[in-house]
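CATEGORY: protein folding

GOAL: derive structure tokens
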Amino acid sequence: MSPAIRVRTAREIRSVRRPRRHECWGHLVAAPLWPMHDANLGTLLRTCDAVGACLAVPPHGWVDRALARGNTLRRPACVHRVGSPLRWLADERKAGTSVLGVELADEAIRLADLPPARRRTVMVLGHEATGIPPEALDLLDGAVEIPMVGTGSSLNVAVAGSLVLYKLAGLM
């Protein structure tokens, strides 16, 4: 008979986590710059907190409302408002940031083969129906593909972003 499984308390879990700074972590940034569904933003914000990433969002009023409603952490999260997604991506790339898109592309690396991010990395997520706009594809340094066995061609933004963030953070 196997030993009983003991669930750790919240205090025990907090005691083994790395200390959190209150300023921007800056190493990983999830960028759902063309969101379709507001519920996905709150879910992605929760994942960003879990892996120590920031969230970059477009300046739509409904995005701020979605984040406020979806922030189940009930404390401030690291959120950057991006005025022009294309200009912001170009500026990030010029500054030496690795810009990685989650997209079905011939040159895409499979999620299982994606190494952890070793420098500042922006993970770009496109619109759930149309993907990353063609004019933004030229601003990517690379793409990652999440293999699927079923009949669907993609996952929703929150699920896809969460999988890739965990891999980039070196947590899976």
The mean pLDDT is 85. The CA atoms of residues 25 and 67 lie 19 Å apart.
